[in-house]
Amino acid sequence: MKHHKLNEIPEEHVTNMFSRRFFTGEKVTVAFLTMKNGCAVPQHSHDSEQFSYIISGALKFQIEGQEIIVRGGEMLEIPSNVPHAAVAIEDTTGIDVFSPIRSDWLDGTDDYLRQQK
C-alpha cells in the first residue's frame, strides 16, 4: 500500500505550455495535467489504454479521423495503440489514467511531448 499526496509530487514542466504530476503503480499511471490554451500534443500512440477526464477547460482531440471536443466534466476513452492528437482550446486541467504504465514518461523518452513549445 502507498499513500500519495499530490502536493508532495513535484510538478514537471514538460514545456512552457504543459505540466504534469503523476503516480505510477505496477500496472497503472495516473497523471494530473495542466495545459495552457494553444498547447498541442502531436499525434502519437502507445500501448496503454487511456482515459482522459477534463476537470476544467477543453481539449480538441483528433482520433480515428474524427474531431471531438472534451470539456470539463467529460471523459474520453482511447484504446491502446490508436493514434491520437490533442490541442487545448482553453486553459485546461485534467486527469489521465493509463494502463499499462507509461514507461516512456518514467524514462524521459516521451520526445513527442518534450519538443512542443
Structure report:
- This protein is mostly beta strands.
- Helix content is 8%, strand content 50%.
- The protein is built from two helices and ten strands, in the order E-E-E-E-E-E-E-E-E-E-H-H.
- The strands form two sheets. Strands 1-2-3-10-5-8 form a six-stranded antiparallel beta sheet, with no helix packed on it. The protein has a four-stranded antiparallel beta sheet with strand order 4-9-6-7, with no helix packed on it.
- The mean pLDDT is 95.
Q: Care to give the gist of this entry?
A:
The chain is mostly beta strands. Helices cover 8% and strands 50% of the residues. The protein has helices at 103-107, 111-114; strands at residues 12-13, 18-24, 29-35, 40-44, 49-56, 58-63, 66-71, 75-78, 84-88, 92-99.
List its salient traits.
117 residues, 50% strand
N-end to C-end Cα span: 38 Å
The amount of helix comes to under 10%
Taken in chain order, the helices and strands follow as: EEEEEEEEEEHH
The low-pLDDT segments are: none
Query: How many E strands?
Result: 10
Which radius of gyration do the C-alpha atoms yield? 13 Å
Strand order across the largest sheet? 1-2-3-10-5-8
Number of helices: 2
